[in-house]
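Can anyone check this?
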Amino acid sequence: MIGMAVSALGFMRALICEYRLWQLREKRVSQEERGEFRAFLKETAWIKKTLNIKR
């Protein structure tokens, strides 16, 4: 149970970092610029980017 919680926490932190990097790269940090989380999920292959460990 603890292992699953630690894994989920790591995944969520990586997802948040990918989202923030996307905002900065695309220069879309406000709602007017469509920098919200829904736009990130819709416009990117977020699962592949988050699980990519070859950086």
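Reply from J.R.: I decoded it. The first helix runs from residue 2 to 26.
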